[in-house]
Amino acid sequence: MGELWRGLLGRAARLIAGVHQTWRRSLQVRVVTITLVASSLLVGGFAYLIADKITNILLENAKTDVRLRLNSGADYAAKQVYLYGQPQEAQLQETIEGTVNYLAGGDPQQTSGVVVAITAAHHGEIQTRTAPDVDVQPLISPELRAAVADGNVASQIGTGRLTGDRTKYLVYGSPVPTRFGQIELYYLVPLARQDATAADARATVVATGAALVVLLGLLAALVTRLVVNPVRVAARTAQRLSAGLLDQRMVVNGEDDLALLAASFNQMATNLQRQIMRLEEMSRLQRRFTSDVSHELRTPLTTVRMAADLIFAEREEFDPAVARSAELLQAELDRFEELLTDLLEISRFDAGFAMLDAEPTDLVPVVHRVVERLAGLAERVGVPIELDLPDTEVIAEVDPRRVERVLRNLVGNAVEHGEGRPVLITLGMDETAVAITVRDHGVGLKPGEEKLVFNRFWRADPSRARQTGGTGLGLSISVEDARLHGGWLEAWGAPGQGAQFRLTLPVRAGDRLTTSPLRLVPDDARLPFGGPRDGGPLAIGPGVGGTLAIMSGPAADVPTSRTEVRS
Length: 567
Description:
Distance between the termini: 59 Å
CATH architecture of the largest domain: 2-Layer Sandwich
Oligomer: single chain
Radius of gyration: 50 Å
Structural class: alpha+beta
Number of domains: 3
Largest sheet: 8 strands, mixed
Number of helices: 11
CATH topology of the largest domain: Beta-Lactamase
Helix content: 40-55%
């Protein structure tokens, strides 16, 4: 029994969910439903008023007819019994019986349904007479009997069985004056015909109202269909346009407002297509220009490099000023060659030609290699590098060259901005992901800078001299390398608290990331009152569709708000 109820409840829940979903998604369903409900209430109210009015008219007509008959009958009965001075007279009972028969139509067995009765509440010697001969006592209430006995004309409506089926009767009573006091005359008129007429009228009104409601529903469905269909077509066309099918257009029929909407939509789509094609062409030319320039600069750079190497090798024989110039030339050529390499890499990313050469790799030696390469720089600027690595291997399917390049950029930036304080590198792993965080305790990021940190050629402080001679493309390339792995590259920073970058990669190439084994916001971060919503630290990471997500959140790893900017 419990399983049956659970099954029924499950079906009911699914049905309600389906109806709710249809209600939310279909404008036509909402308009038709609202029209049907509103018209049903309106038509139902009018139908009730009309049916009630018809019933009241029929009842008033019946009352008027009974009152006329009652007045005439009371006058006739008064004349018939006026000759009798005492209620005990022998002929009085026969006179009353004849009067009742006459008022009932002259036939004691008449079948019109009207019942005439004469009673004498104050004279027990006079027996109640009715025509036809039925018991009217159940239909004459004590209140009505008392009112008529007091000399008043009174009425009531009651239901009972007198001459056949149970029927509703209109009962009217009137006093009849005599020489010995008064007697009471009652008319009991069946309302079956009036009830049948009122029922027919109600049925007719209800049927007409129902037909009107259905007609209004069909009309609303037709009108909303005429309006909703072009909107649906516009929505489908917009979806195709957003999917890249820029040649999609709406069909324009007629010259009304909907046709104007379709024409305007088509004009907008044409302008968007023209602008997008123009931007794509400009982007293509820009990428081609960057790639061509980078390649074309290779040949003169090689020649200049050969000459510079020769001069640099012989610098000991030159004057000190010339020797220093040779050293500067060599350093700038190194930076220029690195810039060309980064530009070529960026052009490959932009063109979509970058390929991932993933293989099972232990990331612990990768971190050690990066630290060894940057040990000289760290010692020169006085920034110690601390490691927090697992004792066991950390194996993941990654491209070791790209991961090492990302870590080299992150650690190099941390050392450059470390302000003489330690830089901590942490490596963590769970069943689905590996993560590496690089934490510095430098000046941190000012409000708003977290939106720019991954932009190409952006520098937090333009007046600050680069210790590493970087190109300004390192973090941009790192973001693309992380995205190529299907991973995340995120940043957190706060003024005076330093910054932390987190690289998260899937353990198996191609898997989708859901969480990271390491926290983005460091444990020693000081959050302001109210948390990040009151201006706390922000984080930047990859979002949906090739975007960077700017996230703010408490010390926990789950962001509380999220916006997106293009990388």
